[in-house]
Amino acid sequence: MKLEVREGSFQYGSGKALFKNISFSIKEGEILTILGPNGVGKTTLLKCVTGMMPWKYGKTILDGTPLDTMKKTSIWQKISYIPQSHNVVFPYKVLEMVLMGRAPYINVFSMPSKKDIRMAEQTLETVGIAHLAGKPCSKISGGELQLVLIARALASEPLVLILDEPESHLDFRNQLTMFKLLQTLAEKKQLSCIINTHYPDHALRISHKTLMLAHGNQHLFGKTREVINEANIESFFKVNTKIVTIKQNGKDIKSIVALSHE
Ligand SMILES: Nc1ncnc2c1ncn2[C@@H]1O[C@H](COP(=O)(O)OP(=O)(O)OP(=O)(O)O)[C@@H](O)[C@H]1O
C-alpha cells in the first residue's frame, strides 16, 4: 500500500511549529526510517501520519485516499501502530494481548473466532515467543513485552506497519531478529514499514528510504544511502562520524563510528 504525506505541518497549541511542509512517501515492500535528535518530533510525526493527531496543514494519503476521509476501522485494518513501550503493566495474558490485534475484524459484541485465535498463535510463533502465550504481560520482561506488541500489531494483518523505537528494550540478538522479520515481511508480504529509530546504523542496515529531522524545521528525505552520510549526520546530529564498510560473504555491511561531538 502506498502511504504519502503531503506538505505536513504541526505545532502543539499556539507553540512554535515542530515541523513544516514535510513530504514523503513509501510504496509496498519499502521500509522508511525516521531519524533525528531527542525532542525533534519523531513520535509526534508518527501520530500525525496515523491520524491520531490532526495535521495543522497537509495530509496523509493512503493509496490515493486522504486518511481524514476514511473511517477509523478501515484505517486500523490497514495501518498498525506500535508505540514506544513504557513497561505498562497489562493485566492480560500474552495470547489475549495479541488477540486484541484482531479487534478491527471482530464485532464489538462478538467473541474472537477460532480463526482469530489461530492467527494470534501463528503470529506469536512468527515473532518467536509462542512459549510466552499463557504468561501474564505483567510478568514478562521489557524486551518480551516489546515482542508481544509487535506480534499484536502483526495479528491485525496490516498493510502498513508503524513502529516507534522498536529496538528499545531488545537485546542485541532480538534486535537482529526483529529487523530480519521486518525485512522478510516487507520482501515477501509487501508490507510497508515506517520506523522511528535513534540508530543511524539500523537505518542504514534495513531501510530503503530515510527521513532525517533536525531542530528548526530542517528535514531531508530520500534514499537511505544518499541521506545517511557523514556530512548529513554532522549537520543533523552535531556528531562527527566515520562510515566504515565491512565485507561479509560478498556483501558490503556499513557501520557508523562516532568520533566526537561539539
Ligand atoms: N502533548 C504534548 N503537548 C505539548 N508538547 C508536547 C507534547 N508531546 C510532546 N511535546 C513536545 O514536542 C516535542 C517533540 O516531542 P516528540 O516526543 O515528538 O519528540 P521525539 O523526537 O519523538 O523525541 P525522543 O527522541 O526523545 O523520543 C518535544 O519538545 C516535546 O516536549
Summed up:
It comes from Desulfocicer vacuolatum DSM 3385. With 262 residues, the protein is α/β, with parallel strands linked by helices.
Layout of helices and strands:
Layout: E1 3-11, E2 17-26, E3 31-35, H1 42-50, E4 57-62, E5 65-66, H2 72-78, E6 79-82, H3 94-99, H4 114-127, H5 142-155, E7 160-164, H6 172-189, E8 192-196, H7 200-206, E9 209-214, E10 218-223, H8 224-227, H9 230-237, E11 239-248, E12 251-261
Parallel strand pairs: 3-8, 3-9, 6-7, 7-8
Antiparallel strand pairs: 1-2, 1-4, 4-5, 9-10, 11-12
Bound molecules: adenosine-5'-triphosphate (ATP).
Unique ligands: adenosine-5'-triphosphate
Strand content: 25-35%
* Low-pLDDT sequence parts: none
Rg from Cα: 19 Å
Order of helices and strands: EEEHEEHEHHHEHEHEEHHEE
What name does the CATH topology of the largest domain carry? Rossmann fold
| Average pLDDT score | 92
Which CATH-level-2 architecture of the largest domain? Answer: 3-Layer(aba) Sandwich
Measured as a percent range, the helix fraction is: 25-40%
Taken together, the total number of domains comes to 2
Lateral arrangement of strands in the main beta sheet: 6-7-8-3-9-10
> What is the terminal-to-terminal distance?
41 Å
> Would you report the number of β strands?
12
Tell me the major beta sheet: 6 strands, mixed
Q: What is the CATH superfamily label of the largest domain?
A: P-loop containing nucleotide triphosphate hydrolases
Structural class assignment: alpha/beta
Using the coordinates above, name the CATH class of the largest domain: Alpha Beta
From the spread of the alpha carbons, the general shape counts as globular
- In DSSP terms (H or I, runs of 4 or more residues), the helix count works out at 9
